[in-house]
């Protein structure tokens, strides 16, 4: 097995004490090692585990992985375009009331958030927002829009949100319930 090579990503982590291997369903192979481990120690570890690595890599259907990635990319591009249009329209609508300055609107594939706002006035949204009901989209847009004025979740922030989305408490609960489905 020594003469066979495989590609991997090396992550250096200061707080870890040992080397870890992870092979993801998409075929990505990641080695996590302490920051102070010399590279030759990492390579020796991989040599010792080569047989196990090749066995695991052999179980992955890379054609299926590539097909899934391609389908996911097509879905993302279509969803992103649709979401950006929806979001821009909603921001224009609600900002007639608030009249806040915003810099840029971005639509991304955020893993854990529906949206975010930065101090610089940038608004970021998850492309999956397009798959939500209109009232939930409204709430998310208003929520992020109000962060342009209040970068926290204090009383004044929620008062701002409540000006255009009076049932925001109910909608927050709905979003929390469906978060894992997306």
Mean pLDDT over the residues: 87
SSE sequence, one letter per element: EEEHHHEEEHHH
Radius of gyration: 23 Å
CATH C-level of the largest domain = Alpha Beta
Mind telling me which CATH architecture of the largest domain this is? 2-Layer Sandwich
**Structural class designation:** alpha/beta
Report strand %.
Answer: 15-25%
The CATH topology name of the largest domain reads: Zincin-like
Number of helices: 6
Number of extended strands: 6
Strand line-up across the major sheet: 1-3-2
Uncertain segments: none
Bulk shape: elongated
- Give the CATH H-level superfamily of the largest domain: Metalloproteases ("zincins"), catalytic domain
The percent range for helix content is 40-55%
Offer a few descriptive terms.
2 domains, Zincin-like, three-stranded mixed beta sheet, alpha/beta, 182 residues
Architecture blueprint of SSEs:
Layout: E1 9-13, E2 20-23, E3 29-34, H1 39-48, H2 50-58, H3 62-98, E4 104-108, E5 115-117, E6 122-126, H4 134-146, H5 155-164, H6 168-178
Parallel strand pairs: 1-3, 4-6
Antiparallel strand pairs: 2-3, 5-6
Helix pairs in contact: 3-4, 4-5
Describe the structure.
With 182 residues, this protein is of the alpha/beta class. The chain has 2 domains: 9-60, no CATH class; 77-181, 2-Layer Sandwich (Zincin-like). It is built from 6 helices and 6 strands, in the order E-E-E-H-H-H-E-E-E-H-H-H. The strands form 2 sheets. It has a 3-stranded mixed sheet with strand order 1-3-2, with helices on one face. A 3-stranded mixed sheet has the order 4-6-5, covered by helices on one side. Helix 4 packs across helix 5 (155-164). It is elongated. It starts with 8 loop residues before the first strand and ends with a helix. The model has no long low-confidence stretch (mean pLDDT 87).
